[in-house]
Amino acid sequence: MSGEVAIARGRVRAAILLTLLPGGFAFGQPADPYLAQRRALIAELQAEARADAGSAARIERTALDLLARVPRHEYVPASERDDAYENRPLAIGYGQTISQPYIVALMTSLAAPKKGLKILEVGTGSGYQAAVLAESGAQVYSIEIIAPLAAQAAQRLKRYPNVGTRTGDGYYGWKEHAPFDAIVVTAAASSIPPPLLEQLCPGGRMVIPVGSSFFTQTLLLVHKDPQGRVRTRQVLPVRFVPLTGGPG
Ligand code: SAH
Predict the structure, then answer these.
(1) Residue 65 CA: distances (Å) to CA of 41, 95, 223
(2) Which is the catalytic residue, given 2, 99, 136, 212?
(3) Would the CB of 108 count as within 6 Å of ligand 1?
(4) Residue 159 carries which DSSP code?
């Protein structure tokens, strides 16, 4: 009898020890084999952020903290998993890509997500950017035009009660949940879609790559002031897959 109690106590102690061990141990779960790689990537981004400090393309520490919490390897196809913590875009099927971590960090910085804000993402893709935004506690709505990608991302994002997803043409935004404090567009538009501008709150910000599908695109930070006037700032030359859909 007392022997059983002793064993039980021993187990409890082992469980407590496990949760305290470094290396991503959660109770009863194996260590995250990618933890060291993820930390190295964040350190690399931190170094880039220091180099860019003071420029329009500066990355805030808070954005890096959000990236550090999301296991990027769970958002890429199994064949790409070992490259998940390289600072580059990766193929996710259907001719689409998960953006480079540096760009995700920058767009997250510019969107400045936090609890209490409502954010629209256009181009769910893998679901990674939506997860990073959701880690802030913001309410995130993300829309994807390719149905199988939308379905896969919805599955991955189930762990976030503060993320809503749907299949559809994000050129037209998501009217039912508008207006948004921030809008993050992760595919390149030829110009800023008017419906997205309409669905931005006064005082809100939109981060959007604009330009031709094949040549130069520029990441823009669009501010709508409290009077509804729009101000646009060029942040960085970028290369995104094209925003499809829309009127033409
Ligand atoms: N944010 C994504 C990046 C995906 S790449 C991630 O973190 O993985 C851009 C995505 O935008 C693609 O999946 C593409 O299918 C989608 N897309 C392109 N045009 C769109 C549109 N009009 N509405 C919604 N999604 C669109």
Answers:
(1) 12, 30, 24
(2) 99
(3) no
(4) G
- In DSSP notation, 160-171 reads -TTEEEEES-GG
33-238: CATH class: alpha beta
**Ligand 1 atom nearest residue 169's Cα:** 23
Tell me, yes or no, if 126 is annotated catalytic. no
Q: State the distance from the centre of ligand 1 to the C-alpha of 7, rounded, in angstroms.
A: 53
- Each of the 248 residues of the chain gets a pLDDT tens digit; together they read 444 444 444 444 444 444 444 444 455 566 889 999 999 999 999 998 888 878 888 899 999 999 999 999 999 999 999 999 999 999 999 999 999 999 999 999 999 999 999 999 999 999 999 999 999 999 999 999 999 999 999 999 999 999 999 999 999 999 999 999 999 999 999 999 999 999 999 999 999 999 987 778 999 999 999 998 999 999 999 999 999 999 97
Q: What tokens were used for 42? A: 């964040």
Per-residue tokens: 190: 């030829």
Please tell me the distance between residue 154's alpha carbon and the centre of ligand 1 in angstroms.
Answer: 13
Ligand 1 pocket, 93 CB below 6 A? no
**Cα 201 to middle of ligand 1, angstroms:** 22
Q: Domain map of the chain by residue range?
A: 33-238
Nearest CA to 244 out of 207, 213, 219, 223 is that of 213
